[in-house]
Amino acid sequence: MAGRPAGGDEPSLARINRDSVANFYRSHYKPEDAILAVVGDLDSAEMEQLLAARFAPWTAGGVRLVENIGSLAPQKSRLLLVDKPDSTQTYFRIGNVGISRTNTDYVPLLLVNTLFGGRFTSLINSALRIESGLTYGASSAFDTRVATGRFFISSYTPNASTGRALDITVEVLKRFHENGISEQQLASAKSYVKGQFPLRIETSDQVASLIAQLEFHGLDRREIDDLYAKIDAITPADACRVIEQYYPQDDLVFVLIGKASEIGEVAGKYASHVDLCSITEPGFYTLAASRPDLRAGLKPS
After folding, report:
1. How many CB atoms lie within 10 A of CB 243?
2. CATH no. for residue 88?
């Protein structure tokens, strides 16, 4: 398992110098890579003239480069255990790859995930918080990007209940596949999503952000104008199809942050491959994939 945090880490930040910052600016801060959305009480023609005058000196910076790495879906279950010896709780995420923002199943998944882990009364929060009291919160999400995004379930629990919480999470996912979604559940999700959407476009700032996002992904106002009609058109059969297609079961990736001496034995139950590293090591999320010595046993070197 390896990752590249957007904010950098101790090793990567130490390698950055002024030339690398200047080169990045010249390569990426260009008109062809910029989107400007303006929302407010204004005259469109006047605003267009003002913006054209203000940004006239900003010239193109060369060929636009867009890297699409495609799908990196793991082909087997894996688990990364990050040892935090003073931790009294285990924080965990479980998931795999998700969808791009332009995926045609974006709206069906919005409804389906509302039921699975997108609201307080969702299946995963009900099981882990309301019914068992193992956590104060559990959720799931599809983090959509230009390329394939990620799907993840997120929660936390005391060290002693780590195994039980993970068992319940995996079982809820299994039952989701087996039981599907009823007409009544789907109707509830539709009402919820319709009721929440207006809250996302109440302010000018929210509207500008949404317009910029749509432009970035090559989408248009139909994403807004047709949203309710798309929601109404979703059937239980559509919902069951996207569960089967997008909610992983067999090749789950687990990330646990907690006290390895107490949860290490539990961790080995959920994946055929376990990586172990210490939270105090800079770049710990990349170390596990590159240092075999960190995988030996359940004690960090």
Report:
1. 23
2. 3.30.830.10
